[in-house]
Structure formats: structure tokens, C-alpha cells
Amino acid transporter transmembrane domain-containing protein
Amino acid sequence: MSKSKAIDCPEIDRAPPQVGEIHDAEKYMHHDAVFGDMGEGGPNYRNVRIEHNIVTTTSDLFKLGWIGTAVLMTKTQIGLGVLGIPSVLNTVGLIPGIILLLVVGGITTWSDYIVGDFKIRHRHVYSIDDVGEMLFGPIGREFFGVALSLSFTFIAGSAMLSISIAFNALSNHAICTAIFVAIAAVITFVFASIRTLGKISALAWVGAASIIISVFTVTIAVGVQDRPAAAPQQGPWKSDYKLFSSPTYAEAQTAVSTLIFAYAGTPAFFPIVSEMRDPRQYTKALVACQTLVTVTYITIGLIVYYYCGTYVASPALGSAGAIIKKVAYGVALPGLFVTALLWTHLPAKYIFVRILRGSPHLTANTITHWITWIGSTFTITLVAYIIASSVPVFEDLVSLVGASFQTLLSTQTMGMMWLYDNWPVSKRVRDSRWYIGVAWSVFVIVAGTYLMVGGTYSSILAIIKSYHESGWTAAWSCADNSNSS
């Protein structure tokens, strides 16, 4: 723990009055528009103190400044999604795949920006269910709350499934896969119960680094090897990558859903900015995050698909052979666990805040506080475990989450949020910029709705196909799920 030091929090004095916000430096540590009164003994979610009228922080490691926030945001993005990008290029072709990636990345970056802007305008907003209530009343609050919880929990389940794949790859399928999923769930539960994102951000550094190193290890390996592991090992071989492909409607929709999943962090940015020390640095963190994420996705997708062609694996870590697969999964394992614990922590925190918001138990170390918190993390972990065991095909689960939930939570809702804040302006200020904003927001809403319906339909068909191929025995199976990866 480093010595306490002063930090600059200009939003105390410069930010315009917002719903529920306190503009008093003396009260800044003790009260938050979301978390309420901050007691000395309980968790300090924003990790700020007041000393001699100066806002201070007690640790350089356990805080959410803009760098820590950028790392945490990057970890919500670079996780499971990057492992499916080469397979997307295989489905739609190299050139359409890169174009689609840039389009999805551009739309979600705009959506991410709207999250921060909306939070500054409405400081009482903690999660997307608060937005739902502002847009559609109590029904909207419940609908978005359920969608958020299911989305995050499905991602946690996907992470547990990927951890079981890693365990199988590393151990040569030493025990039943169902047991590996259970082990992943237990470890996830323990670390997801850390109470503040500031402390989890320290783990996010390790998680993001391990995933990036792992996928670049595979990327380099496929570039220097004679051929990918799944290709014919005898005779001459040349990569059969395609600049353009001819996927079916369902395959194309599934590919787009996988890309949406790769940028699935948008709804998680609400609680992240809520625990930032200085929310006005959110945009700086966002630019750093999205730049790193997009460059990484393009680099890995291009190189792996160029050298592997149709023999690319999904997840991509299995594309370079058995030895590299073990190395890659060994390096990636900490990152996969951080993905699982982060996406378990976020929906658990949502439930926890929803139950105790407005109560002194939210920020005090009471029995009610701990029972509610541990109960929330345990419930999310249990549901995620059931999901991981029930839909045991990584690619199908990733596309289902991307289609069913992430389009709604990462695109349409942000279009509605822009309209909510900007539609009521006077006719005298409706300039060309305003009309462009309206047109863009409507486009995002319509396009997102189309992708949500079509992608969900295609993903469900893919899952049914996988079950048919397994003879409907895939759930809670002991079979080695790393063979195709």
C-alpha cells in the first residue's frame, strides 16, 4: 500500500448539478449518488478519502484512475471474444470480416462513449436498469435488469467453459470435463467475492496481459510453422484462406454475433465508471481501451486466419498444434479466470446494490451486508455453472450471448439514451449536427434490433445442430471438449 496522496477531482467544482449528486468536497468521501453514505469501516467503492479538504486515495494499485479503468475495460473486452475472431474470418472471408469488425467496433465505441456521457449527466445511474427506468418506467427497469443479469451470467458461463477446455488441454483430459467446470466455478466464486472493482483491477492487469500474450503466442506459432495442426500433415500444403466467402444467412448472422460478443463490455462500463475516482477521465480510458482492443483483434484475426485458413480452431488457441496449445492455454488460464470472476462479480454487484441501495448495509460491514453479497456471488456462480454445463460448445454459446443480449445492451439502448437526452431540445437549436445524431441513433436502434432477432435465431439453430450431432448427450458430459480446439 502506497502512502496516501492528493488527487485532482475537478468534477466537484466544475460539473453541473446532477440528480442525486453532492457538490461539497467535505462530503465527497462520505456520500455518493449511487452508494450513499460511505462509512469508515466498510468497502470504499470509489477509494477516495478527504484530508484537509483535499480528496485523497490510499493506494496506487487498488484504485480506478483512468489507467486502471482502461485496463479493467480492456479486460471486459479482450477475453473470450478474441478467441473466436479467426473463425469469423473463416466464415465470411478475410475482407468482409475485417470490415465487419471495424463497423461493430465503431458502433460499440460510440455506444461506450454514450455510457460515460449519460453517467455524467445522470450521476444516480449505476447500471443499465436505471436507464431502463428512465426510458420506460418500472417495467423498463425490471426488463433491463433481467437482461443485464442474464447477459453477464452467460458470459461468466462461457468463461467457465473455456477454463474447462484449458484444463483438458493442459492435463490431456485427466478427469471428467464436468468436474473441470465445477472446479472452475468454485475458484471463480472465491475471487468474484472481492467487493470492489478497484481491487479487481489489479487482477485485470494480469488477466489482460495473459490473454494477449497467449493469443500472440499462437499467432506467432502459426506464422512460423509449416501448417496448422488440423491440416493434412502429409504432402504439400498451402493455406486455403479466402478473401471473400459465401456463408449461409445463419452462418453470417452467427459470425456477426461473435464480433458483437468480442466488444461485449459496453453494459459493464456503467458500474465501472460508477466506481471511478474521477469519472471525467472516462473518455480518455475508453479511447485507450478501444484502440488496443481493435488493433489486437485485427492483428490476431488476420495472421491466424491467413496461415490457417479453414483449419483454424475455435477457440483459436488450438490452431498451432498440441504443444503450442498447452503453452497457450497455460499462459491464458489466469486471464480466463479473471474473465470468469469479473463477469460473475458484475451481475452479483448489480443484485447486491439493487437489494441494499439506500440502506446503510450497502457500505457497512454488517451481517446483512455479507449475507447479501455472498448470496449474490454464489447465485450468479451457480447459474453460470449450469449454463456452462448445459451449452458445451464454445462457439455456439459465444454467438448466442452476442446475439440475444449484447446487441440490445450495447447498441439499441445507447441510441435510445442519446434520444432521451437530446430529443427535447428547442427547435431553434436543431441544427445539422442534431439531425445527424437523430439519424444515427435511429439507425443503431433499427440495425441492432435486426441483428438481435436474426442472430438469436441462427445461434439457436447452431446449438440444436450441435446437440443432434452429439446425440443429445452433450450436457454435463465427461467428453474431452478440447479436441476441436
